[in-house]
Amino acid sequence: MVIAADHLSLRVSGFDLLRDLSFVANSAEITVVVGPNGAGKSSLLKVLIGDLVQTSGEVILNRRALTSWAVGDKAKILAALPQHSVLNFPFTAAEVVHLGRIPHHTGIERDAQIVDEVLARVDAKYLQKRFYTQMSGGERQRVQLARVLAQIWEPSCLGERFLILDEPTSAFDLAHQQLTLALVRELADSGIGVIMVLHDLNLAARCADKILVLDGGKIAAQGAPNEVLTAAVIDQVFGVDVEIGEHPITHQLMVIS
Amino acid sequence: MRYVAPPVLIAALLWGLLVVVCLALTLGTVELSVGDLWRILIGQAKGPQADNLRTIVFDIRMPRILLALCIGGILALSGAVMQGLFRNPLADPSLIGVSSGASVGASIAIVFTGGLVQVNAWMGLSVVALGAFAGGLLATVLVYRLATSEFGTSVTTMLLAGIAIGAIAGALNGLLSYFSNDSLLRQISIWQMGNLSTASWSRLLPVAVTMCVLLVVLPRVGLALNALLLGESEARHLGINVQRIKRQLIVSTALGIGIAVAVAGLIGFVGLVVPHLIRLLIGPDHRWLLPASALGGAVLLIVADTLARVVASPAELPIGILTALIGAPLFIGLLIRQRRELQLW
Question: Which CATH class, in words, describes the domain spanning A2-256?
Answer without folding.
Answer: alpha beta
